[in-house]
Write a structure and sequence with these properties.
two-stranded antiparallel ribbon, binds zinc ion, mainly alpha, 6 helices, single chain
């Protein structure tokens, strides 16, 4: 491994995330665990994907007063966490359909921003 690509890969593998359940996660395994771990869903919420975060940043990134963009993201992720916990408790482990996911994110963000 050499050069920038190698350095980036090493840096990526070192990204470490301590889940609320006590597991230590690295790299791209982290997100899939965080989206299905009931402890994480309850305590931190369901992590948004990068594209949706960018869309929220476009809409709320210039806010200077509370709730800020970062607070809105946290509120949305917690709201999604609740939705996913309820689905799992009903035995439904499927992801939200894309349209429903998108609409839910914007509804939660608008509620958070009020
Ligand atoms: Zn976990």
């Amino acid at each position: 491994m050499s050069g920038m690509a190698g350095a980036r890969r090493v840096a990526y593998q070192k990204i470490r995330h301590d889940c609320a359940c006590g597991r230590v996660l690295r790299g791209n395994l982290a997100t899939s665990h965080l989206r299905t771990c009931e402890t994480n869903l309850r305590e931190s919420g369901w992590p948004l994907d990068a594209g949706m975060k960018d869309a929220l940043l476009n809409e709320y990134g210039s806010r200077r007063q509370a709730p800020t963009y970062a607070q809105i993201v946290r509120t949305v992720e917690r709201g999604l966490g609740q939705i996913y916990l309820e689905r799992r408790q009903r035995g439904d482990k499927t992801p939200l359909p894309w349209i429903e996911y998108r609409d839910t994110v914007w509804r939660l963000a608008e509620e958070a921003a009020q």
